[in-house]
């Protein structure tokens, strides 16, 4: 069987490329496109030169893409226009949605007119995309061009990974290809992958008396399995951040079985940007913060009050820990299914690209 040739749009540091290479699908990524040069450099360091290039995707044309003769498209467009974490998200009116709509509304129909459109299609985005007008445009266009689609909302927790990042996935196959064994055909957004069980993951904090048939915390790995074995340098949280915003952090323990969604603003923003670690599990987080806030509201200098929080040993996750958490690198060094991820030499740090996981 000949290998499937793929194009990767909004490629980031190569998440979909890595997923494809770890699958049993006989396919390879021939070209990848992203606007971020740092991300392209990391991509090239790990998957080889000449694949990823910096480009404004809204400038790509059907004529050019037709010459690449790819039958699989992998797309992970900007999620900021659709995320439920952003109450002012503008959907298709957001300028960051422009390039994806260009591909869907202009490029894809032009390719179809020349019978040069891909046979397989994968779109990945944030939970919230499924209710957007952009999704309606996407689905309508695919149906008009003869594609059969399947849609999913999945979280890493369902696969034993301690991260609650809900993601939307759309798969499409061009006629006469179709999907088999979908529970109720098109029109339903599935919360599981057919053939891999029908159980849903239930957050025990929100539903402590959940259905016994649901998947709970005990099926998810502890965070400690993803942590660096040695003390991590450069991951401390500045005192001024702890003084002003520390109470807003999502704080997890090494024994915890969840982290919240990590965003591009991790280490730069506090609320809704990603979890931080409390390395001292022998201290009660609430009690220590209450003591800190009481001292802060008294005559104690802020710089002295923040020393109370030292008991918790709070820190950020390191870039290498995040790579493990998002399955870019294996938990076990002997795991040959994933390669050791490398960082290229250059004038940027891991932190500048560590949230561009796509």
Automatic annotation (TrEMBL):
The active site is at 79. GO terms for biological process: methylation. GO terms for molecular function: methyltransferase activity. The keyword Methyltransferase applies. GO terms for cellular component: nucleus. PROSITE patterns: PROKAR_LIPOPROTEIN, SAM_MT_C5. It holds the Pfam family DNA_methylase. Keywords: Methyltransferase, S-adenosyl-L-methionine, Transferase. Belongs to the class I-like SAM-binding methyltransferase superfamily. C5-methyltransferase family. InterPro entries: C5-MTase, C5_MeTfrase, SAM-dependent_MTases_sf. This is tRNA (Cytosine(38)-C(5))-methyltransferase.
